[in-house]
Write a structure and sequence with these properties.
Length: 238
């Protein structure tokens, strides 16, 4: 595949390295310094786009790719207030789109584990739940997209929680998410279920960005010859 890569920070470079290792080609790289090269004609020369840019640019990048008629894999977080619009446009124009807050294969297993445990805990009212996420100091959004996905799944499956709040919980119906920015931590997510009797904790700790990059490139490979809206759950068949 020939890939159009949006975003050339640490994650973008890791994706480039992984893609080349898997015998793909980077057709064009779009970053802050060459936005003028993000044209429909240039994008049409590629087979697929991968967006790991910024919250401010992701929406426009995806629309441009749809205009060019190429599938999009997006891992940019912090712009999800517009993702419903993107999905609607994708359906109406018969395009292809896969968004994930985290492309790690292990994290997507963690998502499934979180849903399962939440379903059990819905009837065990002795337990309260909270979350903590730890990332490197360069991360622009808080809480992380992964934490929001985990929190959304908890709220959907746990009747006693109605919403999440960052670094606080104003009442018992609120799921507290603590966000920590520390050194060069790739990403750690901890979900704690606590009662007066005991505590249950599940954790996912990324060791590097390489696992994220591998999952993202696998997602791009998965989208070949497909139309519609997909997720990592489709890829790993959960």
């Amino acid at each position: 595949m020939k890939i159009a890569l949006f975003g050339y920070g640490k994650m973008g470079r890791e994706i480039e390295k992984t893609a080349l290792e898997r015998k793909h080609e980077i057709g064009i790289t779009i970053d802050i310094d060459n936005q003028h090269e993000c044209t429909v004609d240039n994008l049409k020369k590629c087979d697929i786009a991968m967006d790991f840019s910024t919250p401010a640019s992701a929406f426009g990048n995806i629309l441009k790719c749809f205009e060019a008629g190429i599938p999009v894999v997006c891992g940019t977080t912090g712009w999800l207030d517009k993702i419903g619009e993107i999905r609607d446009i994708c359906k109406k124009t018969n395009q292809t789109f896969l968004y994930a807050s985290n492309f790690s294969l292990g994290v997507n297993v963690f998502f499934a584990l979180n849903k399962y445990l939440t379903g059990i805990m819905n009837n065990l009212h002795a337990y309260d739940v909270e979350m903590k996420e730890i990332h490197h100091i360069h991360k622009l959004d808080a809480p992380s997209g992964t934490a929001i996905t985990l929190a959304t799944d908890v709220i959907s499956g746990l009747q006693r929680k109605q919403k999440w709040e960052l670094n606080k919980a104003t009442d018992n119906s609120v799921l507290k998410i603590t966000a920590v920015r520390q050194n060069e931590v790739p990403g750690t997510h901890i979900i704690t279920w606590d009662s007066v009797f005991d505590k249950i904790e599940i954790t996912h700790e990324a060791k590097s960005r390489k696992g994220l990059a591998l999952g993202a490139v696998m997602a791009a490979e998965f989208l070949k010859d497909k139309k519609g809206i997909y997720s990592m759950q489709d890829l790993i068949k959960l």
